[in-house]
Amino acid sequence: MQLQYGAFSHQGKVRKSNEDCYFIPARDHALSNLFMVADGMGGHNAGDIASKMVVESILNYFAEKEQDIDQAKDIRDFIVESIEQANEKVYTSSVTESQLSGMGTTLTLAYFHQGKVCIGHVGDSRGYWIGKEGIKQITKDHSLVQELLENGSISPDELSSHPQKNIITRALGTEKTVKVDYYEISVSENDRILLCTDGLTNHVDLNSNLELLTSDLSPDKIAEILGKQALDSGGFDNITVVIIQYSGMVEKR
Fold first, then answer.
1. Which CATH code, of 3.90.800.10, 3.30.365.10, 3.40.50.40, 3.60.40.10, is assigned to 2-247?
2. DSSP class per residue in the chain
3. I want to staple 47 with a disulfide (CB 3.0 to 4.6 A). Which of 4, 6, 19, 23 is the partner?
4. Structural domain boundaries in the chain
């Protein structure tokens, strides 16, 4: 398995700091097939702390236990437990340190394993699959507008302009326990996975960028172009984009 990937992250044109946090493996990093985006929330930069704390906690969990993953009966349990443990750390800090009270974060995690991508998800950051047939959103937002859509209170056309679109109904660190959504899909040669915070999707229509997303450009270049589109369209929030291209081919030597 080979993965090509790139990322773009920016504080945007309005926010004073970037409370998003992401992880892509550096060259020769032991965790070469794990990727994450997290969108922190909370005053006094607590959101910045929450998103970093979650990413670091999950990295530590994988570093300590990844050798056990092939023996795990269910990779879902492994990923969910890593996120639940991260949630507990953020929650404990939020209730024991007054300056961190109320902090939380979204998380969308992608782990490539044996021809599949395994997604762990909490909040309204997103994961997408991109292939020859088009683009498909893998994750479902944990947001008020998503609930309103599902119960028929609003139409799909009202989603992007609804005044309460930024209210999320589930996050890491806000409660002692958290329910984690899990998805698992097979990936084929040259399929791409896109992870992003809502700073991208609030400003950029990904379906209208299908030609870009399936082009021969490198993942880091595509991430940069999408991020700049979000900035040019307002950039009212932090923006983070991670793109991973999968190849099952064994490298020839």
1. 3.60.40.10
2. -EEEEEEEEE-TTT-SS--EEEE-PPTT-S-TTEEEEEEEE-TTTHHHHHHHHHHHHHHHHHHHHGGGGGG-S-HHHHHHHHHHHHHHHHHHHHHH-GGGTT-EE-EEEEEEETTEEEEEEESS-EEEEEETTEEEE-S---BHHHHHHHTTSS-GGGTTT-TTTT-BS--BTSSSS---EEEEEE--TT-EEEEE-HHHHTT--GGGGHHHHTSSS-HHHHHHHHHHHHHHTT--S-EEEEEEEEE-PPPP-
3. 19
4. 2-247
